[in-house]
Give the backbone structure.
Amino acid sequence: MPIPAEVFIPMSMHIGAPAKPIVEAGSEVKVGQIIGEPVGFVSSPVHASVSGKVKRLEERVNSAGKLITTVVITSDGKQALYEGIKPPEVHDRVSFLAAVRDSGIVGLGGAGFPTAVKLSLKEPAKLETLIINGAECEPFITSDTRVMLDDTSSVWEGLLLLQKYLAPPKIIFAIEKNKPLCIAAFKSLANKHEGVEVMALPSVYPQGGEKVLIYNTTRRIVPEGGLPIDVGAVVINSTTLASIARFIKTGMPLVEKCVTVDGSAVRIPQNVIAPIGTPLQELFDFCGGFVSSPHKILYGGPMMGISVPDLAEPVLKITNAALAFDEKDAVQKLESPCIRCGRCIENCPLGLMPAEIETAFKKGSGEDLELLKVNLCMECGCCSYVCPARRHLVQMHKLAKVMLKNHLEGKSL
Ligand code: SF4
Ligand code: SF4
């Protein structure tokens, strides 16, 4: 899409410490120039997505309700590249991980965990299976699919880089069966290469959830409180792989993102490559605007997406979709009393008991929430979706997790 007149680039688009801004109002910046430095190990640098002048640094409340320092850049429309852009020197695992850190790449499937941290395994020999997540299971979202089809070579090069520098004995490229073109493209590459299996998985939400994917590809269960590497696995998203390969080849950090723009209120749904920091309003305008007044805007899909309060919110590194729904699709149905049907329990991919969690939450019982393991809930929304009483289960689980955290920390609930 055309370069926006202004971009709004938050210093926190990842899990971990926000980056520290190193520009100020009036600074001239170019595309790919670092504007925020990582603070500590679990953090990520942030780069300018347009060339132009920093208008101001402001504190903005993000959609999670947190106050985040945001760099506002007025574009000069030239998209001049930063002179320091050059391919990194990569010759071993350490220099590869350093390059991934410099790239600003974080989990682009939506998790936002800094990729360099994920790949910095304390005991590399424990890695048995690298799983490439090409499931893209959530309704509406097709941005990973577009990257896998339109930039197959970068995804594959990213896979080869990880094979070279992480040396996993086995790589499984997991793709849902509803993407036959992706399966065919990567099968034809994998057939000529050792150590890579393309696995076609049923198209079932939440197939792409990390723990679900690990189980469905390796039949191993990540232990409670553990990490995928505890069962010998690392999972990486296919778009993340493509971004790594592009950075290693060109030195251009993560400054743009493929975003699915869709929903019943959008005139021309499509996938759009947008500079990070583009206001959502411009994204929707580029897609023909709205056919009817949007009643709900989401970052992400309809199951796990976060409601966006304001169209001035920007495209983030982790934005894989921006959805806008009309009133008919947006109004939440009224709750009625639980009829103890057990469907929520039957359909929880992690075997949790949402109806019981709700009872414990209403009682304000931190002990019961701990026993019911609400902390394991991945907020996939399956329980809310199947509930005939339309209980707002996943919303309540988010609050119940906070209640449990306070209980464990000895704070008031
Ligand atoms: S949101 Fe519901 S279905 Fe999904 S993991 Fe949590 S409890 Fe289970
Ligand atoms: S699915 Fe809904 S109605 Fe059925 S047990 Fe769960 S919360 Fe109750």
Observations:
- The first strand starts at residue 6 and ends at 10.
- Residues 348, 350, 352, 354, 377-383, 393-394, 397 surround iron/sulfur cluster (ligand 1) (CB under 6 Å).
